[in-house]
């Protein structure tokens, strides 16, 4: 436990030291990144120890905060969430150290590193806090530090807009958490988490659960509370996007799960609600991702999709839990949890890759890139691994967690009554649809960005990323592969965390699932051997024969240009056309007037329907309403004094009544 | 047991290219033509294996990896699918998911190899391929989940050893899987393997730039993919009704050939659908699976 506190202290100390090195950006980076890496390395030790031994450690300190007490508790569930926090934060810090140097002339990097350290430490604290006041303080520190990081390039108006949207969204989410914790606190008589379990009467648990789902769901980015994600993630520096998308949004998932542990066995409709939220977020997230032109915007919508998959796992688990089918409950929860870790690995990798592409080509516009596999071979390889993993394809890690969710849904769908089996059957179908669409989306993202010919001068002159940026990507890619092949070892290690949620022993069921995963590993290894065999065969066949190079077959057209290649928008067009009623893509194409037009243009733009149709009118209305109140506030000090007098007289009258 | 597994593998590896020969002969017979030799696919593969290769100057290593991964994944899928009423080389709970996703991996690499050439035709084919696959995937998995519900097991091998087609629900599933079979193997009404007009093709256009051994790998991989999806349908239609191995083998191979004839008849009887209609047909396949599931749980 003291090791964990020490690690947090080291991270914060590194951040503060970086703040004082404000006039030496290189030094600030070294100190900030170094402190984070060292702190994370220290912190991961107790997390791993707890996860493997399954013992809970807690620490209680004196604290003069009203209603608050400084209690941190490290159980298997917290330890499981700490794992990606420390791992990805350290790697992203190394990457960021190099990435931010580009801005050393124009930005104060010390402050950025301070915010980064606060963000990492607060995320870790959120996962271990066992008192509502401490939790909310950490939650708020997390929101504020990430707000400043999103606003890094605040000279751009889009970035300012994005950071404000994020600020408002995250606080609206917190606004739901406050009444939830107050409800708990008023019934339990204390704001310590260990008193919360089972303290609520049944009629209040539903309200608490919905509040938690909205409040934490806003942080996690569940549709329809996701609107800040596609704004904030592209705006932030890439290593921060990796951190926010890879782990920060998972604290929302952690919150939902932690709340579940207070509420006991859920009624069936909670599971349906979570599953439905998961399906909607998963399908719409990937459909919106397909319509994006901005590489980081695409990845941001994929976070919505993956949160959807995680929620589907939790929902399936909850349905199994309330329907009294432990196998389904365990496998669903394990699948959802495992996807949390896997998503941190591959989404971190993809955001770091996207950052490398952005720094090399100065654009995030997918349709302006192309051919980068020859300019940036290592980045391309890493991005490809991330793309295969996030599409849920074997033999990488994304497949393992999706497989667990499939297995849970299929178990339930084959064995239970119709009212439970049908939602689980729909989960199977939706997961298949999401998988297919995600593969389509990443075929687009990787294929257009890295393959073919460069579509712009910037892409043509791109160069490979610096080694310090490549190393974290390589580590993450290796982790994706390792987890994919070692699923049968990793999944039984989840049993502590799953048991913490469900309250019964999950180990035997996960051991059984590990048997299936062993078979998957056998197939994966066989697949690799077959690939090697086929590659060898190809080499033998081609040796000594004539192997030539020629232009791509162009149907005899004599002057092909790079601009004639299929673009990302056209690649996704059939799918976006199918979902046009949801996407409401606007097209701008001036009509062609002459017979031989010299120039033409075509533009599509897909705004977020939730934002445009719900939040924008809502906030516009709110602003109009507030506008009306301006009458009261016109700067005349005499009138303000009058208000005070009126209030006092009013109070006096009320008191004398 | 071991022997049965090896016979099934060998059967698939040897006979897979024959299916397209049977389909083409059926089409020729219906059209009143003589048609190409039954073994034409073998000749094509053999011819391509002996050739050198021409690569596009645009293409990178991924273009060369595409056919290799595609073929390897098809062989891996062959190892998971049971045939002729006996177990697959590897059977476990949930192997149906792995089956669908291994084929997905092959598709992913084929699509990337197509995009690697920078050709707009191949890009167009790739775009259509991922579009149709995304819609076919739910139909396939929902169909298999229905069979799983009916038979109470999650492994393809056990499903096929207990399924029986004499229930109305499984007929619906078979119809759905039949549609998926046609879509995944690029047959009419989804794709016309005989046209050689770049704008209309899907699968064929994605492999325009491949040549020599690479192209042979692609042709063989496609044949294997047709074989594994076919053996799934045949397995559900024709469960293990007899313990006699030779009889089961003969029935299985006969049923596979019959499936090829049916595909040939469908191809002779109808034209390719307009692209806008294709999603509707695939949605219908999913709907059939869902409907079948409702009937099973009722």
Descriptive notes:
The complex is a heterodimer of chains A (657) and B (298). By secondary structure, chain A is mostly helical. Chain A has a domain at 621-656. Chain A contains 25 helices and five strands. Chain A has helices spanning 2-20, 25-53, 76-99, 109-128, 132-150, 157-188, 202-220, 229-235, 238-263, 268-290, 295-322, 326-361, 372-375, 377-390, 397-415, 418-450, 457-460, 467-485, 487-490, 495-502, 507-542, 568-578, 580-583, 609-629, 637-656, and strands at 57-61, 70-74, 547-550, 586-588, 603-605. The longest helix of chain A has 36 residues, at 326-361. Chain A is globular. Chain A starts with a helix and ends with a helix. Chain B is globular. The interface between A and B is large, with 84 and 88 residues.
Q: Write the element-wise H/E pattern of chain A from the N-terminal end onward.
A: HHEEHHHHHHHHHHHHHHHHHHHEHHEEHH
Summing up helix and strand content along with how strands pair, one would put the structural category of chain B as: mainly alpha
Biggest interface pair, counts: A-B, 84 and 88 residues
Q: How many beta strands in the DSSP annotation of chain B?
A: 1
β-strand amount of chain B: under 5%
Helix content of chain A: over 70%
Largest sheet of chain A: 2 strands, antiparallel
* Average predicted confidence as pLDDT of chain B: 91
Q: How many discrete domains of chain B?
A: 1
3D shape of chain B:
globular
The count of strands of chain A amounts to 5
How many distinct helices of chain B? 12
Cα-to-Cα separation, first versus last residue of chain A: 58 Å
Helix content of chain B: over 70%
Radius of gyration of chain A, taken over Cα atoms and rounded to an integer in Å: 26 Å
Element-level helix/strand string of chain B? HHHEHHHHHHHHH
Category by helix and strand content of chain A: mainly alpha
Low-confidence runs of chain A (pLDDT<50, min 5 residues)? none
Could you name the ranges of chain B where pLDDT drops below 50 across 5 or more consecutive residues?
A: none
């Amino acid at each position: 436990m003291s090791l964990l506190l020490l690690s947090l202290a080291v991270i914060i100390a590194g951040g503060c030291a970086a703040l004082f090195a404000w006039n030496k950006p290189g030094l600030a980076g070294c100190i900030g990144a170094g402190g984070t890496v060292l702190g994370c390395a220290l912190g991961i030790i107790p997390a791993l120890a707890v996860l493997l031994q399954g013992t809970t450690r807690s620490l209680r300190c004196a604290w003069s905060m009203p209603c608050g007490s400084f209690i941190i508790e490290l159980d298997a569930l917290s330890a499981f969430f700490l794992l990606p926090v420390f791992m990805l934060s350290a790697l992203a810090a190394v990457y960021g150290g190099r990435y931010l140097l580009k801005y050393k002339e124009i930005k104060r990097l010390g402050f950025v590193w301070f915010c980064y350290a606060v963000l990492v430490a607060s995320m870790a604290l959120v996962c271990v806090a066992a008192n509502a006041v401490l939790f909310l303080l950490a939650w708020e520190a997390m929101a504020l530090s990430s707000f400043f990081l999103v606003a890094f390039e605040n000279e751009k108006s889009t970035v300012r807009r994005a950071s404000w949207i994020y600020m408002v969204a995250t606080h609206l989410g917190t606004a739901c958490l406050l009444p939830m914790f107050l409800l708990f606190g008023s019934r339990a008589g204390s704001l310590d988490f260990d008193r919360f379990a089972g303290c609520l009467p049944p009629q209040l648990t539903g309200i608490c659960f919905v509040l938690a789902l909205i409040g934490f769901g806003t942080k996690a980015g569940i549709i329809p509370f996701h609107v800040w994600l596609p704004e904030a993630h592209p705006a932030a520096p890439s290593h921060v996007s990796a951190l926010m998308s890879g782990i920060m949004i998972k604290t929302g998932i952690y919150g939902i799960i932690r709340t579940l542990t207070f509420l006991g066995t859920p009624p069936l409709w909670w599971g349906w609600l979570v599953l439905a939220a998961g399906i909607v977020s998963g399908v719409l997230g990937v459909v919106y991702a397909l319509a994006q032109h901005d590489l980081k915007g695409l990845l941001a919508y994929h976070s919505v999709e993956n949160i959807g998959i995680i929620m589907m796992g939790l929902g399936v688990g909850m349905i199994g839990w309330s329907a009294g089918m432990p196998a389904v409950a365990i496998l669903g929860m394990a699948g959802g949890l495992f996807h949390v870790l896997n998503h941190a690995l591959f989404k971190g990798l993809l955001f770091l890759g996207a950052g490398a592409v952005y720094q090399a080509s100065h654009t995030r516009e997918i349709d302006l890139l192309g051919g980068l596999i020859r300019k940036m071979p290592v980045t391309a390889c890493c991005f490809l691994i991330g793309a295969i993993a996030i599409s849920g394809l074997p033999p990488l890690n994304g497949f393992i967690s999706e497989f667990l969710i499939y297995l849970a849904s299929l178990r339930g769908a084959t064995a239970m009554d119709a009212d439970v089996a049908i939602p689980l059957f729909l989960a199977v179908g939706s997961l298949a649809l999401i998988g297919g669409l995600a593969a389509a989306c990443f075929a687009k993202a990787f294929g257009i960005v890295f393959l073919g010919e460069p579509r712009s001068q910037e892409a043509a002159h791109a160069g490979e990323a610096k080694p310090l940026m490549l190393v974290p990507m390589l580590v993450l890619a290796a982790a994706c592969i390792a987890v994919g092949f070692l699923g049968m070892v990793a999944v039984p290690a989840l049993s502590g965390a799953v048991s913490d949620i469900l309250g019964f022993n999950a180990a035997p069921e996960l051991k059984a699932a590990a048997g299936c995963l062993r078979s998957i590993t056998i197939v994966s290894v066989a697949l690799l051997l077959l690939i090697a065999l086929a590659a060898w065969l190809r080499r033998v066949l081609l040796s000594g024969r004539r192997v030539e190079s020629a232009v791509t077959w162009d149907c005899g057209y004599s002057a092909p240009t790079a601009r004639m290649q299929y673009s990302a928008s056209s690649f996704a067009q059939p799918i976006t056309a199918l979902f046009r009623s949801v996407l409401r893509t606007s097209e701008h194409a001036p009509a062609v007037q002459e017979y031989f037009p010299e120039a033409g243009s075509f533009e599509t733009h897909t705004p977020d329907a939730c934002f445009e149709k719900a939040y924008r009118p809502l906030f516009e209305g709110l602003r109009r309403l507030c506008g009306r109140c301006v009458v009261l506030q016109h700067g005349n000090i005499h009138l303000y004094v009058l208000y005070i007098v009126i209030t006092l007289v009013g109070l006096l009258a009320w008191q004398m009544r | 047991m071991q022997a049965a597994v090896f016979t099934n593998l060998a059967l698939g590896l040897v006979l897979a290219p024959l299916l397209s020969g049977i389909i083409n002969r059926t089409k020729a017979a219906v059209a009143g033509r003589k048609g190409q030799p039954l073994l034409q696919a073998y000749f094509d593969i053999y011819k391509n294996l002996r050739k050198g290769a021409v690569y596009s100057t645009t293409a990178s290593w991924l273009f060369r990896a595409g056919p290799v991964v595609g073929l390897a994944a098809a062989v891996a899928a062959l190892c998971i699918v049971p045939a002729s009423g006996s177990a697959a080389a590897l059977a476990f709970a949930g192997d149906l998911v792995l089956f669908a996703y291994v084929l997905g991996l092959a598709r992913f690499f084929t699509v990337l190899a197509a995009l690697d050439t920078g050709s707009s035709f191949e890009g167009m084919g790739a775009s259509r391929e991922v579009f149709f696959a995304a819609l076919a995937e739910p139909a396939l998995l929902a169909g298999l989940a229905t069979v799983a519900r009916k038979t109470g097991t999650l492994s393809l091998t056990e499903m096929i050893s207990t399924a029986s087609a004499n229930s109305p629900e499984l007929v619906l599933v078979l119809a759905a899987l039949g549609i998926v079979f046609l879509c995944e193997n690029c047959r009419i009404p989804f794709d016309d393997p005989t046209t050689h007009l770049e704008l209309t093709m899907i699968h064929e256009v994605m492999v325009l730039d491949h040549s020599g051994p690479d192209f042979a790998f692609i042709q063989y991989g496609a044949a294997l993919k047709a074989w594994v999806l076919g053996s799934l349908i045949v397995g559900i239609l024709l469960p293990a009704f007899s313990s006699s191995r030779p009889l089961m083998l003969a029935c299985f191979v006969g049923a596979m050939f019959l499936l090829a004839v049916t595909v040939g008849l469908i191809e002779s009887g109808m034209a390719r659908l307009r692209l806008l209609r294709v999603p509707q047909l695939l949605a219908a396949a999913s709907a059939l699976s869902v409907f079948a599931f409702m009937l099973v749980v009722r």
